[in-house]
Amino acid sequence: MGALARALLLPWWLSATARPASPTPVPGTPALPRADGLALALEPAGAAANFLAMVDNLQGDSGRGYYLEMLIGTPPQKLQILVDTGSSNFAVAGCHGLLFCCHRSSTYRSKGFDVTVKYTQGSWTGFVGEDLVTIPRAFNSSFLANVATIFESENFFLPGIKWNGILGLAYATLAKPSSSLETFFDSLVTQAKIPDIFSMQMCGAGLPVSRSGTNGGSLVLGGIEPSLYKGDIWYTPIKEEWYYQIEILKLEIGGQSLNLDCREYNADKAIVDSGTTLLRLPQKVFDAVVDAVARTSLIPEFSDGFWTGAQLACWANSETPWAYFPKISIYLREENSSRSFRITILPQLYIQPMMGAGLSYECYRFGISPSTNALVIGATVMEGFYVVFDRARRRVGFAVSPCAETAGVPLSEVSGPFSTDGIASNCVPSPSLNEPVLWVVSYALMSSCGLILLVLIVLLLLPCRCRHAPRDPEVINDESSLVRHRWK
Ligand SMILES: *[C@@H]1O[C@H](CO)[C@@H](O)[C@H](O)[C@H]1NC(C)=O
Ligand SMILES: *[C@@H]1O[C@H](CO)[C@@H](O)[C@H](O)[C@H]1NC(C)=O
């Protein structure tokens, strides 16, 4: 209750306009980053990969995404590319959108078709081609890759972002216009001869979301760099290779299980997506989490606006609010399916400071939002961990990230194993489970179609007899005469 008295709730736009260190506020546009969905020690076989060179090759923050410098074309044009594990197309802004001018590249080849990609928020259209691409902070050679040059976009290149292209690192299944358009990472694995694995560390945990500076991060292509994690890497299987879809067994708020049916956590999928800002939860799970966080926190009467994202909560600079909020744990199925492990985030990761120093108070937003079709482990959660996308072994790994700490206190934990007793053997509704139901439905549809067809045939035949039989064959209306003439 003490916290409630001291916490000052502001509508977010008010505090956003009051931001002292705002880089360039755009009139009419909220200065907040978009709420969701920017809406990312093996030695590689290929000698050209250099993991140490990849350490700290990313920049960005959870609000606007983490990006990588790439060189495209001949002579090379330098671009900053958003790393997105929730999509599978590689695309860059075209000439008038600032950047890649394919007509200036001697190695560019058009493929002769356009593609449109829609994201949770935003979309773009571009023409597809291929060109040579170099990642200076990873390889010293270049690779031939498919790249879309964006000529039209909506809500995609938002104000304040510092990147001008997107690198979709998910599976080819999601690639547009079809899975036959080879993804950048598939091209890289083939040409650089690196193992089919990449890993990511994003270092913005506990730092203000929308300050003018950027944080570091690492995208390790082809393996795992030991200096980027502490303790063990725990792996969960990839359920289906499209998004990085995993299976969530349980959620705990302040050590208390939400006790929902575990299928609710995977409705209709649970994915790991570096291109989404927040932790997004299916509506039912979101409601339960808000309930539990509000109950567990020492500020039970907190305004609804805070939970919905409409308001920020502000505290005097001398005080941080994190001690009032509980830890959140997500339990994932281990490779041995009768065991699980958990990843835990401290409130520093989901109660996010917005502005950085400047005023006498600091305002925070709730880093969790509802979703209609997925549970998304977005950048807010990923910032706590070194996340390994082990495509070769069809699994995603989590380890504690050394950069996720403030004042020496770790902001995340990974621990296990735990038993899966009392949890369904499969929390992901699989197509095979629904198959009998689908068969029944299709038989029902087929028989009703048959019935309707029968009725139609009867109706077609009956009027012919009824109308014409009793009449004089010569007295016919114009329509039937037309038909008759044709028949002759
Ligand atoms: C670049 O490639 C050459 C071989 O072509 C290799 O000897 C060299 O070590 C590589 N440099 C880096 C930074 O990976
Ligand atoms: C899987 O885990 C269970 C429970 O810990 C254990 O009894 C079993 O031996 C494990 N199976 C394998 C193949 O490791």
TrEMBL record:
GO terms for biological process: amyloid-beta metabolic process; glucose homeostasis; melanosome organization; membrane protein ectodomain proteolysis; negative regulation of amyloid precursor protein biosynthetic process; protein processing. Its main location: other. PROSITE patterns: ASP_PROTEASE, PEPTIDASE_A1. Residues 1-23 form the signal peptide. Glycans are attached at residues 140, 336. One of its GO terms (molecular function) is aspartic-type endopeptidase activity. Pfam families: Asp (PF00026). Residues 66-399 form the Peptidase A1 domain. This is Beta-secretase 2.
